[in-house]
Amino acid sequence: xxxxxxxxxxxxxxxxxxxxxxxxxxxxxxxxxxxxxxxxxxxxxxxxxxxxxxxxxxxxxxxxxxxxxxxxxxxxxxxxxxxxxxxxxxxxxxxxxxxxxxxxxxxxxxxxxxxxxxxxxxxxxxxxxxxxxxxxxxxxxxxxxxxxxxxxxxxxxxxxxxxxxxxxxxxxxxxxxxxxxxxxxxxxxxxxxxxxxxxxxxxxxxxxxxxxxxxxxxxxxxxxxxxxxxxxxxxxxxxxxxxxxxxxxxxxxxxxxxxxxxxxxxxxxxxxxxxxxxxxxxxxxxxxxxxxxxxxxxxxxxxxxxxxxxxxxxxxxxxxxxxxxxxxxxxxxxxxxxxxxxxxxxxxxxxxxxxxxxxxxxxxxxxxxxxxxxxxxxxxxxxxxxxxxxxxxxxxxxxxxxxxxxxxxxxxxxxxxxxxxxxxxxxxxxxxxxxxxxxxxxxxxxxxxxxxxxxxxxxxxxxxxxxxxxxxxxxxxxxxxxxxxxxxxxxxxxxxxxxxxxxxxxxxxxxxxxxxxxxxxxxxxxxxxxxxxxxxxxxxxxxxxxxxxxxxxxxxxxxxxxxxxxxxxxxxxxxxxxxxxxxxxxxxxxxxxxxxxxxxxxxxxxxxxxxxxxxxxxxxxxxxxxxxxxxxxxxxxxxxxxxxxxxxxxxxxxxxxxxxxxxxxxxxxxxxxxx
Length: 675
Ligand code: AHR
What we know:
Blueprint: H1 3-23, E1 39-45, E2 60-61, E3 92-93, E4 107-113, E5 122-128, E6 135-138, E7 144-146, E8 151-173, E9 179-185, E10 193-200, E11 205-229, H2 242-250, E12 255-258, E13 288-289, E14 305-306, H3 312-322, E15 325-330, H4 350-364, H5 370-377, E16 388-391, H6 398-414, E17 419-423, H7 431-442, E18 447-454, H8 456-461, E19 475-483, H9 497-512, E20 517-522, E21 526-528, E22 539-541, E23 546-548, H10 550-559, E24 565-570, E25 582-589, E26 594-601, E27 607-614, E28 618-628, E29 647-652, E30 657-662, E31 666-674
Parallel strand pairs: 1-27, 2-12, 12-15, 15-16, 16-17, 17-18, 18-19, 19-20, 21-22
Antiparallel strand pairs: 1-24, 3-6, 4-5, 5-11, 6-11, 7-11, 8-9, 8-10, 8-11, 13-14, 22-23, 24-25, 25-26, 26-31, 27-30, 28-29, 28-31
């Protein structure tokens, strides 16, 4: 065919196609390739509705990686607020005390150790020599995000030592030193005293800093210099970053896993996550080097520490806010086996086990119990109603099983109704995985956590992964997974639509197997664009903005359309697991009285589908929620945060059938009310 003829034919086809699509109300609108005439016949059968979709099915995995807590969700804007980092002045600049400054020797700050305070070790002594403008500047977490006209609460502790520092001036500055808001504090006491003040930003700035200058000369001690936006999640003082929690809330998560991830284990046992050190007064929470600090040479973050301002109390409170079941994961006495793999001797395991028992008491104990009392004193006399606890993260081998047994016995003896989550190691197959599964099954473990970071193709090819799992065996927690456009070993990489679409395809397999798969979560959850160690991630943020990736949109579509009971969707009597690059699952929502069908088309072609509904009549009007993008490399970004986001359309049913077209590279949810 000549070129001109081809163009002409395509144009005619397009016009006819457009006319047809406008006149046929049974079709979901689509974008291309209207010429394909092949129709895939699918059957949705309501006969068996006995398998429940657990309310926990789609949850959230939180770990302080990528500056997700300090510098992220925890809205503190001052880095190293209490001078506790290994270098006590990391994050603090003293431009006028260095030898190159014109105003040299205008002052100096030194770190001083408290005597006998193991958790809050240092404070800062500032000596101001003259009126030449000694400055102490905090650089924030890769800067501080300030929004025009928003207000920020500043807190600090101060103690006058000698001379007379009359005023402490506190200012937001931009990179050129231009002042973008200021306030001041008048120190009055020769004993430690807390002072508060408020600054309002005159301009929006992503990388502001906080400058502190002093009026008068003399010596003054400072500690816990803290700055938070007034506008936090639920308006809580010293609370969480509102936009980030909102993104989590919009996911409607069934559970909240915390605090990780490898951070649970620590690179050494000494540096494991210890929940008891993360509660009580903020200033008494002993900081810890974040285990992701220098884990990856190509993404080193030596200034990454854990302040634990977002500790276990705040975690339980957040779970409650989100309506998510808390799912804490605790150290089982093995440090990260990718690092030291340090083992606590069996005869010294007791404190670790006790930590687990005490955590359950902290969450659920009456206010007369020692740990229930602590919770109550922190402002939450009501129980947090903890139902799950995880023992170990990515552990493997006999050392894990040996330790797991001890935890299992102790927890079940004291709290028989608590459900224990065990782990199958870091890989979804292979020796560690097989061994872990075999042993854990013998122990009648209730839930096994599986992790997979694999390429998108793996996800498409593994939509049948759980079809063969024993229905009477342990339930599955797909506790960490993400499709990586490149291999994990290749280092951080972008999110993209191919990965998200492949996850959507794989998730039809999770849903179809809801009888065994009870909890699932994408990982990691969030990342600071200027300070991340691991990618892809579900949510990206900078100091001002945040957005959900295409992967986030996929998670959100599943989680907000999870339904209550599984129903069967099939092609030629078989589940739809990639035939013609089509994947599908279907559920019924008994509370909302609707059917929800998920269709994932991973091909570049538009697909004609005829859905036949059996054993249930539906109302004629329904909706289609469509997530799609033309190119597999596409993704959302700070510039175009909603580039890939769901679009809703109305669809009409014709009797017992729905004829529809599913767009190339798309994830579609169809919903109809039941009659
Ligand atoms: O999600 C990032 C890391 O991946 C987790 O900390 C760990 O459990 C897994 O290896």
